[in-house]
Amino acid sequence: MAPKGDNVLVSSKKLEKIFCMKGGKGDSSYANNSKAQAMHARSMLHLLKETLDRVQLSSPEVPFVVADLGCSSGSNTINTIDVIIKHMAKRYEASGYDAPEFSAFFSDLPSNDFNTLFQLLPPMANHGGSMEETLAADSHRSYFAAGVPGSFYRQLFPSRCIDLFHSAFSLHWLSQVPESVVDKRSAAYNKGKVFIHGAKESTANAYKKQFQTDLGSFLKLRGEELKKGGSMFLVCLGRTSVDPTDQSGPGLLFGTHFQDAWDDLVQEGLITSEKRDSFNIPMYASSLQDFKEVVEADGSFIINKLEIFKGGSPLVVSQPDDAAEVGQALANSCRSVAGVLVDAHIGDQLGNELFSRVEKKGTRQAKELLEQIQFFHVVASLSLA
What keywords appear on the UniProt entry (predicted)? Predict the structure, then answer.
């Protein structure tokens, strides 16, 4: 049973202990509800490969080390690592070098379902074969794998040991809900809401400040852990509006039917309004300017490319005309990324009630949902300054 308590989201240490994408392989698991992320990642592969071409090739006698931060528990991270390593192996060969050994670190919070992730890993290729044979064997992997539990807002690796950092669909998650947002005495108190979307300016500013602090810590630490000549490819949820209270796609995901479901629980007397108001989604969709300001203020990295990328809908359905499938996709999408936090706050039983209501609301508004919900991503290619 997940821990309960009104302030479970305030402390960054508490959040680190419980927060993760929903594990396992069930209907609402992240593994089965990350098809949209997979599609969006595939559409950005050309940008990833541009970053890979900037990485300085070191001696083939030294292993090439890549780390995926916020790897979660599905196959997306494995597919991306495979692309990275095959591309780098070809770069070595094109330069007339033997390919080095490759090592991949999969990193996420300790609560992440690493068991499911490692069960998805293909077996290690026969080390006696040639690199060409290894790369051609799609059913095997050509790299050593290891898990690294920990927050990427803290140090994860020794200094100067990583050639490439990759992080996709993770950096929009904050280390904590800003304390002022759940403090009744604060002007930033997010009364009546469970997300920044449509909130007051003071609430939005508290979220923005938390994002700036967190991203600044992330950049400083990665700047110390990256090898000279190394690069970083980052993708996180972004927004097209200058106004941070307009959170674009995440706003529609968590600021409409999800919000209404919480309000239903309050109106029906299943939870108090205070219980609702002490829950907030620790997520911030950044604008390009927000992101750029933090990178420039930190000074550890040079920006090679920074753009807003139109990713598409987070709802992947086989029958768009089937309203029930759309409603279920909405509920599963919300639950796969925020269900652990909801259950920790109100318990499993009320969590089921909440997401049941999200599904019903999504079913009623299926057509509008599919037409309106659109995710944008901040895509950043950075090299050490």
Answer: Magnesium, Metal-binding, Methyltransferase, Transferase
